[in-house]
Amino acid sequence: MIINKALSVYFAYPLYSIYEWIERQVTQHDVAMVFFAGHGINAPDGRYYFVPSNFKAKRLKRTALPYYEIRDTITALAGKVLFFIDTCHSGNIMGTQRGVADIDQIANDLSSAENGIVVFTAATGKQTSQESWRWQNGAFTEALIEGLGGQADYTKDGAITINELDLYLSERVKVLTNGSQTPTTSKPDTVPDFPIVLK
After folding, report:
1. Is residue 118 part of a domain?
2. Fewer Cβ atoms within 10 A, N terminus or C terminus of the chain?
3. Dist CA 25 CA 157 (whole Å)
4. How far is CA 26 from CA 54, 78, 153, in A?
């Protein structure tokens, strides 16, 4: 039986309490689905930070999430992990360009973890993630909601697998962005295709 535990994070809560919560909740029998949407930037020291909507440039370390903390938390989880990240390859949030955050490298780093993390990214490292008022979010997030809601069930068997979701995201995001955004998926060879949604 696959158990999905949802976590909706708003950064008003202390980050360490969120880390502790997810680590306590996920067992070896679970599939943790972790989702981040926002901006990704490189700080002046070259470190990647995930930037939520309430980010403050002058309080980077208190209002943004460094990659190493994301990595350490996700790789420590006991069960299988699906990590979805809807951020641009870089951000100009701090007022000036601070370098390119290589989302491809992050995806490869996480997918090589021992616990077998499957990483879905909104775009390649050379693309930006597109948003629209029509969707009220990013194209990748829109496609993900649609896919998990049932549209990725290509075989019509009541189950959506990793490979089916991967295919749906790839095709749907291209349609939504007129071919200008290409989602990527990094799946370790040790992780077989398995259902992540059962209806």
Report:
1. yes
2. N
3. 29
4. 27, 6, 26
